[in-house]
Structures are given as C-alpha cells and as structure tokens.
Amino acid sequence: HGIGYPFCSAEMVDSSGFSITDLKSSGFPLIIAVDEGREGRIDSVLFEGLNYTKISVLNRHVGLPLKRRITKTQLDAAERSLNHLPFLERVSSPQWVLLPDNRTGILFNVQEGSPNSFSGILGYIPSNNQFRSGKSMVTGDVTVHLGNLFGTARSLTGRWARRDQTSQDFDFKY
Predict the structure, then answer these.
(1) 118 or 100, higher pLDDT
(2) Which end of the chain is more exposed for a tag (fewer CB within 10 A), N or C?
(3) In sequence order, what DSSP letters do the residues of 43-87 get, joined into one string?
(4) pLDDT at 15 > cutoff 70
(5) What does the buried/exposed string (b/e) look like for 93-107 if buried means 16 or more CB atoms within 10 Å of the residue's CB?
(6) How does pLDDT run across 24-44, given as a tens digit for each residue?
(7) Smallest Cα–Cα separation from 147: which of 91, 85, 90, 92?
C-alpha cells in the first residue's frame, strides 16, 4: 500500500499439507491471494475540526495532487507539513475515506490551538521623585502576537519597549 494502492488486501488461501517438520526442511506450501484493490487517487482532501482556518490554506500546505496516484511518502510529507504549522495543536495521521459516487478522499483530523499571545510589563515613574525630576513617564516592554490572521496562516507581531526617557523602540512584523 506504500506505492499507491491503499485498498490492497492479502488473504491466505491454502496451507494444506503443512506439518511442523516442514519448518526444518525447505519450507511449507502456502498460497496467498493478493488483491490490489483500487488505485489510490484522491478526489478531495478533507479536514475535520477546523473552526477558524480556511481550508484553502491547509490545502496549500498539504500539497497533495488531485486525480493522481498518492503514495505513503506523499501522505507522510503532508502530515509533517501540517504538524509544522504553529496554529495547529494536533494533526492525526491521514485516513483514506470513500466518498459518494465512488470517489476517494484523504481525511485529516486537526485541532486548532490559540495562535494569539500577549506579554508585557508596564511601569510608572511619577514626576519629581527622589530618583529623577521632570515629567512623569510610563516604561515597559509589551509584545502582542496575532497568529493565523483571519484564518490565512499569516501573523502580525508588534512590540513596544521603553526603558528610559531618551529611548523607545517600536517593532512590527507581518
């Protein structure tokens, strides 16, 4: 099934005439019937458990070609690709599913995590205190990360930092 035949099966048909002494000789007669089954061509990639992320985004990351034979190597690569997405907490192994009209699909069960974060610390230095004179001032370091913006797998990070009256940093990344 690793070469594109996920519905293959094997069944032992006959092992008549077998005795334990046959193991010590050259072998024993065994007939196995192998049925290749349908070729593993997918008509759709399905995702279960999505609440926010757009299906087209995950399809882009999976990269499985439709209407072509799919191998286990391709499915493993698709699963690895999904597991590297920071907004997915859990991705199940892909499963072949039979769809109506004799079509086949690949199903991934996923669980989305919380892609957003906020961290920071703020301080207030009042004017005319024992350590300095002048205007009062807010200091601190604040970082806001918005991941998986609008379900598109894009993120926005903003950071503000101020340690003293003479310096202040702003950083934005998209």
Answers:
(1) 118
(2) C
(3) SEEEEES-SSS-HHHHHHHH-PPTTSB--HHHHHHHHHHHHT-TT
(4) no
(5) ebebeeeeeeebbbb
(6) 555 556 677 877 766 678 889
(7) 85
